[in-house]
Amino acid sequence: MALGWMAWTWQTALFFGLLLCVLAAMTTLAALRPERDRIGMLGLPTTRGDRLFLTLLGAAFIHLGWLALAGDAPLWGASIVSLVYGAILFRWT
After folding, report:
1. 54-73 burial code (b ≥16 CB/10 A, e <16)
2. Is 55 within 8 Å of 86 (Cβ atoms)?
3. Helices 10-32 and 48-70: angle between axes, nearest 10 degrees
4. Integer Cα distance of 69 and 37 in angstroms
5. Helix/strand/coil (H, E, C) string of the chain?
6. Could you read off the pLDDT of 6-21 as tens digits, one per residue?
7. Which of 14, 20, 9, 24 is nearest to 79 (CA)?
8. Fewer CB within 10 A of the terminal residue: the chain, N end or C end?
9. Cα separation of 69 and 14, whole Å?
10. How many CB atoms lie within 10 A of CB 82?
11. Which of 35, 93, 86 is nearest to 59 (CA)?
């Protein structure tokens, strides 16, 4: 399988590797500890998978907004904001 069409840098490989690890951990956690829907601050019943999806989607938008508004500022700031956002989302949603 030729993967030369994609720019595989170590950062890209790290991102997809971590995403794979998170999905494997969520699958293992779901098998070991089945979950119930939770109603949080959104007022909607959500599962761990729903909260993970909202966290990943929000992190993508936070990073895009950071690139648009912060200019040449390092992306570490957006990553920290995304981690805080994810922690809040998993805790209170």
Report:
1. bbeebbeebbeebeeeeeee
2. yes
3. 160
4. 36
5. CCCCCCCCCHHHHHHHHHHHHHHHHHHHHHHHCCCCCEECCCCCEECHHHHHHHHHHHHHHHHHHHHHHHCCCCCHHHHHHHHHHHHHHHHHC
6. 777 888 889 899 999 9
7. 14
8. N
9. 25
10. 20
11. 86
Q: Are 63 and 75 in contact (CB under 8 A)?
A: yes
- Model confidence over 76-91: pLDDT tens digits? 999 999 999 999 998 8
